[in-house]
Design goal:
CATH topology of the largest domain: Dihydrodipicolinate Reductase, domain 2
Strand order of the largest sheet: 8-9-10-7-11-12-13-14
CATH class of the largest domain: Alpha Beta
Helix content: 25-40%
Bound molecules: NADP nicotinamide-adenine-dinucleotide phosphate
CATH superfamily of the largest domain: Dihydrodipicolinate Reductase, domain 2
CATH architecture of the largest domain: 2-Layer Sandwich
Number of domains: 2
Number of helices: 9
């Protein structure tokens, strides 16, 4: 069946001819700190500006990361001619409007996930980027990690046979005062955490034919947890997410020839186990060879983006605009069913 070898991963090694872009950051919160730290440690990219709704927060962030310019508004940041690409790390309710603002100013854009809260809004942003001739990408960092390239090749090469099941979970526990409990900030488990299992499923099986979801809403009006079953012809996927329970965040891709277990957390660097007939000892373990772990793996999407911009692309070939909007459509339908139940 398969040899003991995994395909070589595609690794977005910095300094391979990609331009050193000048980045501006909007929304100096938790993920922005992680992303900029990872970029500084592991890429050839330069962050030159940051904006917050409060100048002191922008200045504090700039101080922590050695950034030249701090602004008190997104308008000022997108108007900075020394910024090539804008990273939008604000809360989800702001993604669409900030992305449109950056695109209108002629900037390339990396928008934190989810790119928008509806498929129509996602398409509006992506189409605006295409019309303006700039590069627009959702920051679905898992797609650019070495592990994802190995999964894609195993699936494409038929090493797993016919894929019949995908399962994945992503649950974290958050206190009631967290932004995820706030409907006005675009909170809820599905769009923030459930997007990871759904994008894994989409990478392996494409868009579903049918979406069935159950879950529960919080008294603040957002989804607390959800189980989503997706039909893809003869294949079925079970994906679940929670913001009220910690889950192992594992994935499994099961095919007629072999299964691939993604150890937790499946969306960031962690081992994978390829099993043929485990009763016959046919098991192979894949380790990330780069040594770049945890949140530092955010670096790969930054180098990938710079490479794509250098190539004159307008969308990521590993997460196209059409697929980005389709994933949002799946989440939207799941949330609709849970809300309407
Ligand atoms: N890739 C990942 O692994 C990952 C992990 C966590 C989060 N995320 C995504 O990153 C985004 C930010 O999450 P986070 O955890 O970093 O949140 P956070 O720490 O609360 O930071 C969000 C930032 O958004 C800005 N903001 C702009 N408009 C806002 C508004 N109306 N209300 C509140 N804040 C507003 C705030 O900056 P100012 O107030 O200074 O303007 C704040 O610093 C979310 O879309 C989330 O899904 C991604």
């Amino acid at each position: 069946m398969f040899a003991s070898v995994f395909p070589d991963p595609q690794i977005f090694i910095p300094g391979q001819g990609e331009p050193t872009l000048r980045w501006g950051v909007i929304g100096p919160g938790w993920i922005a700190d992680m992303f900029v730290g990872a970029m500084r440690r592991h890429t050839a990219q330069r962050v030159v500006a940051v904006s917050s709704r409060a100048l002191d927060r922008a200045e504090a962030f700039a101080g922590r990361h050695g950034i030249d310019r701090a602004y008190a508004s997104a308008e000022e940041l997108v108007g900075d001619p020394g910024v090539d690409v804008v990273y939008i790390a604000a809360t989800q309710n702001e993604h669409r409007s900030l992305a449109l603002q950056a695109i209108a100013a002629g900037k390339h854009v990396l928008v934190e996930k989810p790119i928008a809260m509806t498929a129509a809004d996602a398409r509006e942003v992506l189409d605006a980027g295409r019309a303006a001739g700039v590069f627009v990408m959702e920051a679905m960092w898992s797609r650019y990690q070495p592990k994802a390239s190995v999964i894609r090749q195993l699936v494409a090469d038929g090493a797993l046979g016919e894929i019949r099941h995908v399962t994945a979970d992503h649950g974290q526990w958050f206190p009631p005062e967290h932004r995820l409990f706030r409907a006005d900030l675009g909170g809820g488990a599905l769009f923030d955490l459930g997007i990871y299992p759904v994008q894994l499923d989409s990478m392996v099986l494409g868009a579903p034919d049918e979406v069935t979801a159950i879950g529960a809403m919080t008294d603040t009006g957002v989804d607390a947890h959800a189980t989503v079953v997706l039909a893809h012809g003869a294949a079925q996927s079970t994906l679940w997410t929670s913001m009220i329970a910690r889950t192992p965040t594992r994935g499994l891709i099961a095919g007629s020839e072999a299964s691939l277990e993604l150890e937790g957390p499946f969306h960031i660097p962690a081992d994978m186990v390829l099993s043929g007939n485990p009763f016959m000892g046919e098991q192979h373990v894949w380790h990330d060879p780069t040594g770049v772990g945890l949140m530092d793996a955010l670096c790969w999407e930054a180098t990938a983006l710079a490479r794509y911009v250098g190539e004159g692309r307008h969308e990521s070939p590993l997460h196209t605009h059409a697929e980005t909007a389709s994933i949002i459509a799946t989440l939207e339908e799941a949330l609709r069913q849970i809300r309407d139940a």
